[in-house]
Amino acid sequence: MNFFMPAILGVPAVHSIARVAHMVGIVLVSHSERLAHGLRDMLVQVAGEEVPIEAAGGTDDGGLGTSYDRILVAIDRADRGGGVLVLTDLGSAVLTAQTVLEDRVANTAVLVDAPFVEGAVAAAVLAGAGADLAECTRAATEARDVRKL
């Protein structure tokens, strides 16, 4: 876990086996495979390897766009029993993610209206500290209010 994030958010940097087994997962849906994987790499450095973070970017043929199948697989892989937070970059990514969530039998994932990078960082840090899905969702949505300057 990154040295400064827990202190900023007031969360402990301790993981237990029980927490890891029921940790909130995060899925990053982007039109760009490179963008999704780059953000995933950043989140792993910030929140730790224990947090199940999956990237679902690009189309199946390697182009820009979104893939229903990639999103579905990513959600299933990220689901460790604590629920899954789905963050998207732009318009049609939202529509594709909504369709996936509507079609899934398991109702364990939520689509969050949050800034892609800032929301993902906030949610990942809290997930790594053992927060539940509601707390991670709230942190992601509140990230839109964090000023940069």
UniProtKB/TrEMBL annotation:
Domain PTS EIIA type-4 as annotated: residue spans:
23-149
Q: Does the keyword Transferase apply?
A: yes
* Transmembrane annotation, as ranges: none
What Enzyme Commission number does this protein have?
A: 2.7.1.121
Quaternary structure (record): Homodimer. The dihydroxyacetone kinase complex is composed of a homodimer of DhaM, a homodimer of DhaK and the subunit DhaL.
Entry protein name? phosphoenolpyruvate--glycerone phosphotransferase
Gene Ontology annotations of biological process type: glycerol catabolic process; phosphoenolpyruvate-dependent sugar phosphotransferase system
Q: Name one GO cellular component term.
A: membrane
- The EC class name is transferase
Q: What PROSITE patterns does the record tag this protein with? A: PTS_EIIA_TYPE_4
One MF annotation (Gene Ontology) recorded for this entry = phosphoenolpyruvate-glycerone phosphotransferase activity
Provide the species name. Dactylosporangium siamense
The protein's matches in InterPro entries, at most eight in alphabetical order, are given as: DhaM, DhaM_N, PTS_EIIA_man-typ, PTS_EIIA_man-typ_sf
UniProt cross-references to NCBIfam families, sorted A to Z:
dha_pts
Q: Catalytic activity, per the record?
A: dihydroxyacetone + phosphoenolpyruvate = dihydroxyacetone phosphate + pyruvate
- SUPFAM superfamilies recorded: PTS system fructose IIA component-like (SSF53062)
